[in-house]
Amino acid sequence: MSIQAKFIKFHDKIKLGREDTEYKNAREKDDSILKDVKKALKEEGYPVIEDFLQGSQSTATAVKHPVDDFDIDRSVVIAFDDAPDDPVKVKKIIIKVLEDRGFKNAKIKKPCVTADYASLSLHIDIPLYREQNGEYELAVGKKNSKDENKIWSSSDPKGLRDWINNKDDYIGSAIDKLKQYKRIVRYLKRWRDVKFSNDVAKKVFSIALTVMAKEQFKPNFDENGKASDLIAFRDTVGAMLNGFYFGYQGSDQYKVLVNLPTSPWRDIFDGSSVNTGTQFYKKLTALKSKLDKVIEEEDLIKQCRLLNAIFGDDFEIPSSSSKASTIAKATYVTAGAAGTSQGA
Amino acid sequence: MADIDSIVQYLLEKGFNCQKSPIDLFKIISVKLTISSKPVELIHFLTDEITGLPIFSLSSPTEYGQLAHVSINKFMGYEFGSICVNDRDSVSVNFSMPLLAIEESLNRHIAILTKSITDPEWNRQELLREFSSNWLGVCDIKSKQILLTSASGKLEEVDVLRSLANCDYGVNSYHLAQTKDSDLSVIARLHWNTNKADRPIAGKAIILPLIDVEPAPLKKEDLKCWYLSALLNVKNDDKKILNEQYGRWSSREYWIIFNVEVPSGKTWFCLHFQAKQKHQLPLTAKQLEHWKVKAIPLRLFNKENVLPRGGANLDLAYRRVALIGAGSVGGEIAHKLSSAGIQHLDIFDSDFYSIDNLYRHILPEEFLGLTKAHGLGWQLQRQFLWSQAKGSRRKLLDLRKRQELLSYDLIIIAIGSPTHERLFKEYLIENEVDVPVINTWLEGFGVGGHATLDIPDAKGCLLCSYLCQETLARGLNSNLNFIEANQNVTINLAGCGEQFISYGAICSAQTALMASDLAIKFLEEKLTTSSKVSWKGSDHDAKGNNIQLTHRYYQFSESLQIKSLHDKDCDACG
Fold first, then answer.
1. B442 touches chain A (CB under 8 A)
2. Are B235 and B260 in contact (CB under 8 A)?
3. Are B547 and B487 in contact (CB under 8 A)?
4. Exposure pattern of B37-73 as b/e (b: 16+ CB <10 Å)?
5. What string of H, E and C letters represents the secondary structure of A264-330?
6. Which positions ≥6 away from B88 have C-beta within 8 Å?
7. For the residues of B500-544, what is the DSSP string, one character each?
8. Could you tell me which residues come within 8 angstroms of residue B149 by beta carbon, excluding any fewer than 6 positions away?
9. How far, in Å, are A56, A86, A128, A149, A150 from residue A136 at the CA level?
10. ipTM above 0.90 for this complex
11. pTM of the model
């Protein structure tokens, strides 16, 4: 069995898809909440013209957190002409729906409405947009913000999603390369969740890891087309370190800056502390160094031990390198390959 | 080309005793030298252009006895010895430096003459080694050549069937001497009109093995004498049979077909005896007086002779191979395996040969309407005379019969159907059919082709090549492929059921050559591990049709190189 098989097994353990059974309750709640939100907005004269998933669920980069709740990023869109000048007015309708359904910690944050479900491990973020001719504006402002801070801000939520999902730059087995990139994003997220304290981990934003990995992605497949996530991960981490995201502040301190690749092009780490930047840089450097050691190591069990220290117990350490641990037979991924290219 | 004076001057400067012909009309130079106290003269006729190694001929060659690599020719009443210094076509000559070319050639001629004259034992061995070529020098090339189907070479009597009248090519244009131990009798009846009504008997022949032989005679006039000396080299047992049995024949025409071991292997040659009246087979000088004797060309026509000369391997004759798929790839494979010497080839395919197949299939139009498998079997038997190829309409999945499969040394699947191929593989695993299998297929738009060799109990199997590179579970399309899965690569000209993948006969042939090479290497035991091999073509047509190609296509740089098939993540053999 190869180290790649171990990576695939690990990935299967940490990945969180919307159709996964673990996510079933959250998905059902999401559907139910969306229904109530739409009804409430319609009654107030702001009918929802579109809704879509945002964040990691929309890009297939979501991971199970070892401890924390599931996240839902559900965007709702109203028509430009229906929208009031004060965006917070609409956000208040949404928060009332959440409060009525028993959510705790319901808040109107600057970019969205957010809350935790009381009886489920579920955290929900609802960004609100208005749309006209394909242009989106995000409802920005807190409950008690001054009028000048309550604005409709130009945004491109779908552009970001499309940028992450874009595979046009990859030549040969482009889908496989995109999938390898997304696995690497998940590895990075799980590494962050394991290696940082809870407080800091929350500040090493998932979208920042996603953007950095995309910009610096170094796919790795051997000449036969077989993926090596280990080498791709090491090379991508190395490129992230050299990607001019970390600005040296003197005294072994760093600030991190990562711009969104689409509108509004803002720095994801705007307002982030030196402590966050420094920890991020140093832990990323240590990660690269440990991955180098894994690559140098030839024994599969020792490799897995090193990776277990990086990713936690979901990266299993096999008891032996025997065939018994080989992946099970015939877990076909699809019912049929439409139009095989073979002839004779 | 240099003028004659320059050549003479040049050779003189190089120390040769060279002079030109006293008659200006003839552009001839002569080089005189002494080899082992014997005076030797070499003659060169100047040519307008140097197109090969310049030729020097030996004057008065008979004065030196029989010399290896020297054959005697007559020109305008004079005898010249043609000296064979090389296969002339294999020498690349510096035609822009004629003086150097002439000097080099002269030195080569002198070297070989010196060796022949000064080393009698070497000379004799070389004469024997080249017996066959030298014999041709005394053959009557206008006589009908005889094809002899003997395999053993033992003493026996053979009927010589006359060639067909007005037949200038093919086996029917030769006299045919077919022995009792020949395995060509079926083919002979079918194709060569060996029914005596069609090809009457031209006369009697005897195959006569010799225990030793003298070098071939230099002149046709020496044949009788040479024949009498050859009779001294007949085994006593054979001599007895010759005298008591064949010596009592009475005929006007005989052939004696000799065979004997020489340093280059077993050689065969033939003498033809003709008399005005019927006489006994001549076995003494007195009896020989009645007869006119000619050496006539003989061509051995048995598999031991024909197959190795054509590059085939006799050891493969008894290996049993099943070929499933008689399409454009399968057809080429069948042809290549047969040309390599595979005789027991069972071909399975249910398809009928149609007009649609004409431009990329090996079969000619005369097989239209016949099943491809039967057509191929028939065609192979015709072309490869010892082939026992036969066709069947059964499909791959119909062949899931353990005992039958176990009778084969190798199974080759060329059907281009991944589903059936994987189903068949499952059957082999579940029923412990430990027969090696080659799967081969090609891809559309000329991007390439592939073959895998799956040897049971070895690391590496067909399923290694179906391992999904993303999930490492078994996939549905081969990971060897150059075209990404889930694209519509078929072309549809006439509606459902009429789709086809775009590739030409060259792609089929390349794929088949590669698969056949894998098969032969395995059967010859030069390849003992499960293997894979691919060829990569241009992506021009694929790009033109917006076909996406795999990472493997872009990285692949080892066309036709045989690699290990094993993938350690394979659940079946990992």
1. yes
2. no
3. yes
4. eeebebbbebeeebeebbbbbbbebeebebbbbbbbe
5. CCCECCCCCCHHHHHHHHHHHHHHHHHHHHHHHCCCHHHHHHHHHHHHCCCCCCCCCCCHHHCCCCC
6. B52, B53
7. EE---HHHHHHHHHHHHHHHHHHHTTS--S-EEEEEE--SHHHHH
8. B176, B177, B178, B179, B182, B184, B188, B301, B302
9. 20, 16, 10, 18, 16
10. no
11. 0.82
* Cβ atoms B418, B478 nearer than 8 A: yes
| Identity of the residue in A173, A326, A332 whose CB atom sits nearest the CB atom of B484 | A173
- What the block records as the tokens of B386 is 């010892």
DSSP conformation letters of A73-98 = EEEEEEETTT--S-HHHHHHHHHHHH
Give B388-423 pLDDT, tens digit per residue: 999 999 999 999 999 999 999 999 999 999 999 999
Tokens describing residue A261: 């690749």
Lookup: tokens for A125: 């973020």
Name the band, by pLDDT with cuts 50, 70 and 90, for residue A325. very low
Single-letter amino acid, residue B401: K
Verify whether the Cβ–Cβ distance B488 to A338 is below 8 Å: yes
Q: Are residues B464 and A329 in contact, defined by beta-carbon separation less than 8 angstroms?
A: no
Reduced 3-state DSSP string for A117-162: CCCCCEEEEECEEEEECCEEEEEECCCCCCHHHCEEEEECHHHHHH
Q: pLDDT tens digits for B503-542?
A: 889 999 999 999 999 999 999 999 999 999 999 999 999 9
Write out the residues of chain A at the interface with chain B, using a CB-CB cutoff of 8 A. 1-2, 4-5, 8, 171-177, 179, 221-227, 323, 326-334, 336-344
Q: How far is B366 from chain A (nearest CA, A)?
A: 22
CA distance B184 to A20: 70
E strands along B154-250, which residues?
156-161, 175-177, 201-209
